[in-house]
Amino acid sequence: MIISLAFIICFFGGPFILLGFFAYLWSRNKTERYKTVREYLNRGLPVPPELLRGQRAYAPPPVPASPHTYSYPAPTRRARSDLRRGITQTFVGLAVCIVFYLIWPDSRIWAWGLIPWIIGVGYIVAYFVEPEEEAAAQAPLPPIPTPGDSPTKPPSTIT
């Protein structure tokens, strides 16, 4: 009786608990973003548009270009992750194949693991086939000027 009651509570209540957890995380993220905007405004700095749009990758704090103006560094692009996704998917597919084969050795249900495996192989192929033009577009950013640099001379480089 207790086991069946616990099963019913977990089965029907689990999705609501999970939904509540994700709603809490979303609310906390939004609250933190509002605190950050308030901090920018309290310091008298312009608020980056990425922060107002709610994008995940916020611009770093502004760097003073001169005593009276602030400039924001160009946003960086996220590194290519096709190789990471491909390796992950490939091994997930392999693990599903092995587990299903060990549980049901007489059936062909293990073949369901081939789906993520093939997707992973596709990601790996896409990583190596991608043209080099995108890699060139992800060139490193120019150095950020230090507070001692004047606006007329080029910023110092870190070596």
- The largest sheet has its strands arranged as 1-2
Distance between the termini: 70 Å
Number of strands: 2
Sheet with most strands: 2 strands, antiparallel
Order of helices and strands: HHEEHHH
How many domains is the backbone divided into?
A: 2
Radius of gyration: 25 Å
Continuous helix count: 5
Helix residue percentage = 55-70%
Strand content: under 5%
Structural class: mainly alpha
Flag low-confidence runs: none
The averaged pLDDT comes out at 76
Task: Estimate the global geometry from the Cα principal axes.
Answer: flat
Characterize the structure shown:
The chain has helices at residues 2-42, 49-53, 82-103, 114-129, 132-137, and strands at residues 63-66, 69-71. The protein has a two-stranded antiparallel ribbon. The chain is mainly α and 159 residues long. Strand 1 and strand 2 (69-71) form a beta hairpin. Helix 3 packs antiparallel against helix 4 (114-129). The protein has five helices and two strands, in the order ααββααα. The longest helix is centred in the N-terminal third of the chain and has 41 residues, at 2-42. The chain has two domains: 2-59; 82-136.
